[in-house]
Write a structure and sequence with these properties.
This protein is an alpha/beta fold. The chain has 2 domains: 242 residues, Type I PLP-dependent aspartate aminotransferase-like (Major domain) (Aspartate Aminotransferase, domain 2, 3-Layer(aba) Sandwich); 98 residues, Aspartate Aminotransferase, domain 1.
Length: 357
Amino acid sequence: MINFTVGPVQAPESILAIGAEQVPYFRTPEFSKIMLENEQLFLKFVDAPSYSKAVFITGSGTASMESAVINTLSKKDKVLVINGGSFGHRFAEILCVHQITFDEIKIEFGHNVHAKDLEPYNNKGYTALIVNVHETSTGVHYDMDLISNFCKINRLFLIVDAISSFLADEFSMNKYGVDVMITGSQKALACPPGVSILALSANAQERIKENPTISYYLDLKAALLNQMRGQTPFTPAVGILLQIHRRLKEIENAGGEFYEINKTRLMAEYFRQHLAGLPLEITSESMSNAVTPLHPTTASAYDIFTILKDEYDIWICPSGGELKDYLFRVGHLGDLTTADYDKLIESLRDLQKRKLL
């Protein structure tokens, strides 16, 4: 099986080997040291501002999305959400559940954020903005320079979901003035799903301190307090945290975040350069290195996903809802090589010969 999905992604052997080991007891100085190194390396790779902290939540990216909202925002806030797909919509649903006032900036499918989309919201009393910098469901990577400038002019608290974009695209909390950045274990870190990570600026930590606690498990006050000693409030996904540590150290030893970003970019470019002659249209006007969104013009996208899975032992990423038959996505994260993409391209050309594509 070759895995070209957007997560969980194909893991290197070094990560799989840790998954085969016995899970150690974790309330120890040795595990605390690993967790403190995890925090230090993660903050380094996102270029976090001084006095930032990171916390590790045992839960999917959505757990950290909700945790960011309920710990740093309140009913006193007036929030803008950039909604161009499933994950922007998910933030809107979280805000709705917690009765936080918000408005959505709706972005047309496949399109980037433009100045005209933001201009109507200038100087309108908003206090925060939330964006999924890479809307994974559509494969659109939003213009962070534009969003950052808008937030700085309007003095907005900025929450960025970079779950699929982390280590795939250049990103700097410092440069963009990001207060909360979120990612997950199963994307570029190439570990199993189950851990999500938040980087929190000093400003975010102050908001967390001032806000009332409204969740027991997702309380970031407790998470921050425990991370000071390299621990978590409750039993974490110990094995995954050990795998994350190995991946972070591997990335550091290979040359850091820019090495990993460049590797992902090269895989994306290689695949896209070999699409000529296939009845596939790229649907995004602004792509991440993480994924290529493709619309097959002669067949159902979901049928292609199914045939590749069942007959070629290849997984691509299907879409749901109204995009089910319109769009599939090919990921560029994890332990993939040009030889893997050669096999995918060969399989797609074989489908074309069989008149299944």
